[in-house]
Amino acid sequence: MEATAPTSVLLPTTGWGDTCEEIAEQLRPADELLVICDRELESVVDRVAAHPANVRLVVAGEPEGCSGKANAIAVGMEAAEHDRIVWTDDDFHHPPDWLETLRADYARQGPTTELPVFVGQDPLARLFEPTYAISGTLAVYFADIPWGGAVVFDRSDLADEAAFLEELRRTISDDGLLMEYADVTAVKRTRNVEIGGSTRETLENQVRFTQIVRHHDPTGLAAQAAVGAALAAGCLLFPLPAFALVTAAMATVYAAFGIRRWTFLAAYPVALAAIPLLSYALARRSFVWGGRRYRWREKFDVTVENP
To answer: What residue ranges are annotated as transmembrane (predicted)?
Structure first.
């Protein structure tokens, strides 16, 4: 598959930042970077104007019936000039070879995603890091689940682009929906993504992550609940052996993905809290993400409210 095809990079963001500069410097002349904001920001307009014409501001507007991220991606897909598409986020470092590496991945195996490693920015988020390592890194890798922070594909890889964009404007998770429209291969290459910042934000993220699995992979959610219940029971019945086994297993996962964090030691208490956390997340009627409150009743039934 051609590695030299011109590429449209879609970057939803709330303002011009380091990520915009990092990606702009990696563009080939035929490529384009779409900086997608909810509204036209003078600071972004000025910075875009200082770059070549292949860096553009795209104004997405306010979302109606979908998340701000899904709305931004849908608008960006329609505005993009090329068939080769890269989605990314502004919350991690993009090294100088990031875009070229994704091009090479696509040439070798088609649609490809990298892996997130979520790094907690508050005490509760740090405690949850073993959960993030399992569901956000390990599961993404073995199940070939696309991560919207770093994924490359071609429009022709989508089963039905028109239907995809129509449904994107009626749901929350951009990458959750992409999973249903394209076959993506995950590569064992990680990017550190800061997450949380306060207890409330971490709990809101937990609700959102759980709801994504609930709506896009209900069978996986049921399996997760069964495994979590069995693991919690084992931890309660055999605390010392379970502590040693769970901690060693998590240390192995961390080592396998190059995660150099002490938080694998929190695996045992997280295992005990798995079912209460799952129950809490499923019981919540809404969650806050990016300054908006969402009520996600069904996969394609979303109400956007002020937080």
So the answer is: 229-256, 262-283
Q: Is 43 exposed, middle or buried (0-12, 13-18, 19+ CB in 10 A)?
A: exposed
CA-CA distance, 64 to 287, in Å (whole number)? 16
Q: Phi/psi zone of residue 144: left (φ > 0), alpha (ψ -120 to 50 degrees), beta?
A: left
Residue 271 lies in a domain: yes
185-195 and 287-289: which strand pairing? unpaired
Q: Is residue 211 part of a domain?
A: yes
What's the whole-model pTM score?
0.94
For residue 270, the enclosing domain spans 7-290
Q: Closest Cα to residue 206, out of 139, 141, 124?
A: 124
Model pLDDT for residues 152-192, shown as the tens digit of each residue: 999 999 999 999 999 999 999 999 999 999 999 999 999 99
- Bridge partners of 194, per DSSP, are 119
Decide if 17 is inside a domain: yes
Alpha carbon distance 64, 68 (integer Å):
9
CATH number at residue 133: 3.90.550.10
Number of compact structural domains in the chain: 1
Count, residues in the chain: 307
